[in-house]
């Protein structure tokens, strides 16, 4: 090939199975390249595709598209929901572009989203902004912490609505990439998603007290999301206690201990063309998309290729995606076997972390909204075990540095809550009876059996005969939590 007319190609590179990292590289053309230089965007239509190559492309495509197919699967499920309500009596569900809200903390039986928290009152809406923009209502929350999360099909955030933004009460609009209508009077701001599909999750902080459970009701009644056609400039109030209940008990898939499997390797390739249509490529991703579309076209013509990529998708699920359920497989290593991420809901082309988070704890907030810290092991490196006893001691004046709230949450081996007699799954700002030590430090006790009557307020029950994980949330984090100068204290195994 003549160097002066060389073709410059954006290439997707798949790393080894042992360290599944997807990266994109693009070499800039030399200064002497002419305007006639050809840009190749993908395979040539109609050319033969070898099965081995089809498997290679299938493996990388399955990995980077997994989060998008996950969110799209939720959209398809919500299209079957007749009206806003509670699945199994505990999980807020609604048809696309409508909201359903809880009135208390989420219950341990839910299986819709792994790693929920019991610090906020949740709401949930699945977005289909190709159909219509939606209006979001923001009431006056006063001093109460709140944040509304809006993410696209990639799970990247596209709106800034919350206490950390100084958001004023009123009406806001979420619109898709192709909407060019007139913004009605009274809408304070428009946030535009890069995709039609997405998710909207309000989080409203609530103290773990009877008084605050009552006080929060008048506020959440004014939390709202609905199609633009329903907007009349007047605040709509909803009595969320009147939501109907339908679906399986507990909102779980047949009583499974695991999260509902939103991505099915057998259906993945049938859904992918629509998902690609719904999710325009980011800058530099054109070749990835072209490869994926060429692979799908080849599979549609050749049953052997289709069988090969379905098989390879199933292998990728087992070999690449499933291991990322463990927190210790991704993110940045911190002292005492904690780890963290710094690009939640802003993943860009970090396909590895995006898929890891989607598998282990999807729908994390943006870093300035929430900083997350994860631990699967104690300070000595041993896997956290429900039959052991642990102490987590925050030194004086060294609680998680936040302007919002913080919590330490315990999840079982499936990243859900294990029911316990105390009905306690986290400790933190919401708990008004925590007992501090004489020197001003705070020790939390993580174990299956009671640490003693004098320590009950500081006890975080662990499931017996099961491994578990610990998870620190710092909502509206201060700079020390963001820049790494503060990290969680060691989880110390007790004798």
Automatic annotation (TrEMBL):
Matching PANTHER family: BLL3101 PROTEIN
Gene3D superfamilies, sorted: Domain of unknown function DUF1214, C-terminal domain (2.60.120.600), Domain of unknown function DUF1254 (2.60.40.1610)
Domain DUF1214 positions: 370-479
InterPro entries for this protein: DUF1214, DUF1214_C_sf, DUF1254, DUF1254_sf
Keyword Transcription carried by entry: no
Keyword Cell division included in the entry's annotation: no
Organism: Paraburkholderia phytofirmans OLGA172
Name this polypeptide is given: Cell envelope protein
Keywords (A to Z) from UniProt: Signal
Residues of the signal peptide: 1-23
Domain DUF1254: 96-227
